[in-house]
Each structure stands twice: as C-alpha cells, then as structure tokens.
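Q: How would the structure tokens look for this protein?
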Amino acid sequence: MLLLCVLAAPAFADPVAPAKEDTAPAKDDAAPAKPDAPSPVVDHGDIPTTYHKGQFGLSARLSLGAQAIATYDSKLYCGTVDATAANGNAPVCAARSPVSLGFEASYGVGRGVDLVLELRIGLEKEFGPRPMTDGPHPLFFAPGARFFFSEAKRTRLFAQPEVVFDFTPYKDASGNSRGNDFGFRGLEGIWLDLHKTYGMYAFVGETLEFVRWIDANFEAGVGFQGRYP
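A: Here is the predicted structure in token form.
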C-alpha cells in the first residue's frame, strides 16, 4: 500500500512549478538624463579680426587735400601768379591738390605690421608749365610699412610711413622735363575690419618732397581693403 502511494504521488503533483520570486531590485527603465554640458566655443572664422599676419591685401582709397609749393628758383611757375613779383610767378603757391585714387598691395608680416606698396594716380590734372594750361596727372610709387596699435575687437589705429618716388611728368615753359622727385609720406588713421577677409579705414596723410621744389601735401580720405586667405 505504501508502495502504491509513492508511485501515485507524481501524478497528483502540480505540473507547473511555482515561479521563483525575483528578489533582485528592479532597475529603472531609463536612467535619469544628465544635464547637458556647456558646448565649447568654436571659432568658425566668421568673427571679424584684425589679425593680418600671413594675408595678402589689396586696397583702394580716395583722397582729397591741399598742397603748398615753394620753388628754389623764382622763374619757375608753380601754379600761382604774382603781379608784384619780378617775373610774375609767385615764389610760394598754395592750392587744392588733385583728387587722387590710390591702390595698395600689402602683406602681413606680423600681428601688428603690414608691408605695403602704394601706387597713386591723380584723377585730376596738376598745374601746367604756364598759367591757364593743364599739367600732368600725379603719379608716384611709395613703399613702406603699416604699424597697428591700440587694438580693440574690430578696430585699431595705425601709422604708415612711406618713401615716395614721384614720377609726375612736369615740364617747364620750354617743354623740358622737370625730372622726378623724392620724399617721404605718412598716413595715420583708424581701421575697421568688418570680416577676417575685408575691412575699411579712414585716414589723414602728409607728403613732403624736396627735389624739384619743396612740395608739402596734406590730405584726408577713406579706403577699402580685401585680404586672402
């Protein structure tokens, strides 16, 4: 009898074993999101900068001013007559200088230094060899350097000394050439870089030449420059 009970016990047992109770702590389906870290500031090169090192530049500027000429010989006509003078020519002449267009090539050799080469062409003519006659268009080359200082985010001041080689073809009353001239030139102004590759500026300038005669020129103007890369 005992043997039959033992054999029959599995038949009456529950065929599905009770599931084991999961005692492991439940895990959250999604971990709480971490606060976003601040994104690093990346310079994409679209912020204006006054850093010109390694850049080639091409500039155009327009200027207007006044000039005074003192001749070494009272026989020379410098643009003004004087009835009280022995030969009718004023020894010192003062007048508005011709409106001029300047072109300038540059290269940035440092953060605050550009090497420059200026070509200046007069849009108006100078005085002629005699009263009431037209003269030549001004023409000169001027190599030099531009030095920046007092730099801000987009602006800075500059000073630009140059050496002037003046090839304006003046002639005397006999039609002979008065030769070339030599002198010094300085520009001072404020520079505004609108972008890494271009900017604009306003300036005043002084030029002093002394070979043909003593020629002092004072001017003011504005310019625009493009740079690469």
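The beta strands are 56-70, 92-110, 113-122, 139-149, 155-166, 181-195, 198-209, 214-228.

The domain at 56-228 is CATH 2.40.160.20 (Porin).

Upvote if useful.
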